Amino acid sequence: MTFLNLVVLRAKDVARLGQFYEALGLSFVRERHGSGPEHLAATAGGMTLEIYPWAQGRGTEGLRIGFQVDDVEMRLAAALAQGATLVTAFKDGPWGPRAVVTDPEGHIVELAGAAS
């Protein structure tokens, strides 16, 4: 069986990006592996999201990350309050409620609820 278990984002402001994802319901801890840089890590649903300091040539451009959340409208409001930019407004469609934003570093983030 194969499944996704790790997503790594690069950020110019690690703390601010951590606060943004905490507003979506994640809880981060600070980690350092060996002599590598200190970074943030959160585990949810068997998957780990890590936020590392941005480094030249090691960006995460073009990335889209999706979260299934308990309340799309509430999490959308929290994301916007933390500096997100709205890409696609809240809509309840055949695949359930959804909205798309960019996080403060420009990563595309989809917020999805369970389909009815």
From TrEMBL:
Entry annotated with the keyword Cytoplasm: no
Alphabetical list of Gene3D superfamilies matching this protein: 2,3-Dihydroxybiphenyl 1,2-Dioxygenase, domain 1 (3.10.180.10)
Superkingdom, natural source: Bacteria
SUPFAM superfamilies listed in its UniProt record: Glyoxalase/Bleomycin resistance protein/Dihydroxybiphenyl dioxygenase
Alphabetical keyword list: Dioxygenase, Oxidoreductase
Transmembrane segments: none
Coiled-coil residue windows: none
Record-linked InterPro entries: Glyas_Bleomycin-R_OHBP_Dase, Glyoxalase_6, VOC_core
Domain VOC stretches: 3-114
GO MF, one annotated term: dioxygenase activity
Name of this chain's protein: Glyoxalase/Bleomycin resistance protein/Dioxygenase superfamily protein
